[in-house]
Design a protein that fits this description.
seven-stranded antiparallel sheet, five-stranded mixed sheet, 165 residues, alpha+beta
């Protein structure tokens, strides 16, 4: 697993809450953008999540809801506690339950935000202090099955740090 921020400051964390992404956890790097989508070239590729990898190719192809996530669906840019959300898809993105028709910004120090890609895959983006981050990591590991130390890079790679798989 990735080490906790030793400064004691809160870090931006993307947590999967519904759909095949439920239980996934990503610590986002301050000042960088990440692209989320089905393409393996995305910083956070839904084709590398535990639930996707555990399913048969037939089951993956037949899941209509998963396939409403575009190859490059959304870009998230985080700077300190401010986040910018950009819909890159033709299938629709949602920000706190409302369709995202243009780029939207949010102050994560005020509250967490919910984003949905397509019809089902839902995440919560929040600022997490070291204690909260550790609790999220523990619950994520339980949701996805424990991963051995050092295997944290087995899943997604790139700008986002996949701490759960």
């Amino acid at each position: 697993m990735t080490s906790v921020d030793v400064s004691g400051e809160a870090v931006p964390v993307l947590v999967g809450t519904s759909g095949w992404v439920d239980g996934e956890l990503y610590v986002l790097k301050n000042g960088e953008s990440v692209v989320i989508g089905r393409s393996r070239s995305c910083d956070i590729s839904l084709r590398r999540i535990v639930a996707y990898l555990e399913r048969s190719p037939g089951e993956r192809d037949a899941d209509h809801d998963f396939n409403t996530v575009s190859r490059r669906h959304m870009r998230i840019t985080v700077a300190t506690a401010n986040a910018k959300f950009e819909d890159l898809s033709t299938n629709g993105s949602f920000f706190n339950g409302e369709a995202l028709s243009e780029a939207k910004e949010a102050d994560l120090s005020d509250a967490a935000v919910e984003i949905r890609l397509g019809t089902r895959e839902t995440f919560r983006l929040e600022m997490a202090d070291p204690e909260r981050l550790e609790a999220l990591r523990n619950s994520s590991a339980l949701a996805n099955g424990a991963v051995a130390e050092g295997d944290s890079d087995a899943g997604n790679s790139g700008d986002a740090d996949n701490s759960a798989s």
